[in-house]
Design brief:
Blueprint lengths: L5 E5 L4 H11 L3 E5 L12 E4 L1 H9 L3 H7 L1 E3 L1 E6 L4 E6 L7 E5 H14 L4 E2 L4 E7 L2 E6 L4 E4 L1 E4 L6 H6 L7 E12 L10 E6 L4 E6 L5 E8 L6 H7 L1 H11 L7 H6 L6 E9 L7 E2 L2 E3 L14 H18 L2 H30 L3 H18 L2 H8 L25
Parallel strand pairs: 1-2, 1-12, 2-8, 5-14, 12-19
Antiparallel strand pairs: 3-7, 4-7, 5-6, 9-10, 10-11, 13-16, 13-17, 14-15, 15-16, 18-19
Protein name: FAD-dependent oxidoreductase
Keywords: Monooxygenase, Oxidoreductase
Pfam families: FAD_binding_3
Length: 411
Amino acid sequence: MNRTRSALVIGGGIAGPVTAMALQRAGIEATVYEAYPTTADGVGAGLSIAPNGLAALGIVGADDLVRQIGIPMTSLVMESWTGKRLAEFGGPASESSMQFVWRADLYRALHDETTRRDIRIEHGKRLVGAREDGDGVTARFADGSEATADILIGADGIKSATRALIDPGAPAPRYTGLLSFGARLADTGLPSSEGKMHMVYGKRAFFGYAVYDDGSGGWFVNLPRREPVSLEQVRETGAGRWLDVLRDAFAQDRTPAPHLLDRTDPAELLIVGPMEDLPNVPTWSAGRMVLVGDAAHAPSASSGQGASMAVESAVQLARCLRDLPYERAFAAYERLRRDRVERIVAAGARTNQDKAAGPVARVLRDLFLPATMKLLAKPEKMAWQFDYRIDWDAPVADPAPGATRQSVRAS
């Protein structure tokens, strides 16, 4: 068998380091190449690691890293703008409870763990091209340098440069009709939410918040906006102006949203920008190149599964490469992942439609939401997402002959 021994991992965010650690466990040497010249400390808002994502991190021995920096979220409480409780998802605290983490903390923990395991991370390496020969694939970076290995893995996010090299006609990210904001508060002035994340369908926007036992906490907002806008354009408006817009959007809500917004200083506002997703990426691999994480499948933040899906895919890809030559490994990996991730992207898109509802749709949403939530709150309805587990020790089945991709052209 033509075994994979080395890999170039493009992207040093969340998916890249986890992919490198999973490859290391599979006996494959990986180096991570990050486009930005420095580490991304302090960048990003909050996110959740679902039980399925935590289980996948456990395979590479990184689940305790998340527990050390995360806050266990025992349940999600859905509410209306009037303060009425619509439903509650979840149960008692356990080792597999959903963890709420700040992306900056997760990034730093994974970065430090990757280097502790003697996996090299190189910064200032923006991918601009790749070429293949019979022995491997060579990446070209914007600084003029090159690197060669058996395979190249694009873990470079929703705006992936690797995806464009694999398929120049690949779809661009889709705007969901929502802008995202958040803040991390040292003192919320509210009692603890006791491990519960509150999700509020506000009268004009969606609001999520949690308060920790020490009184600190955080919130996020999904603000409907029909016209697409870039992150740069959103940031040009300025934090102070956006806080005024958000306060106005929640002024009529009978929830903690107005209070938490009033306690937020403009310097604390995280302008995340337009929420996007990737419903379908037709081509995940070509020749010696393959995609993982948001580069291949990017659910919107509304899914609560983005990071967890990236971790699952990283582990499954490494498992396939452990057992099969790279072309058949890529085909097996896609077969194992595509249906699941596209189902989760679709679920997140349906949630976005409720969040971005117009005036008439909001009336209908608020009318039918209580009954819908009672149906969805049953644990068995969410088991397909949260109970998914990867059997690392099981051998990967070889896909049917011919289930491979064409070699990528030099670019």
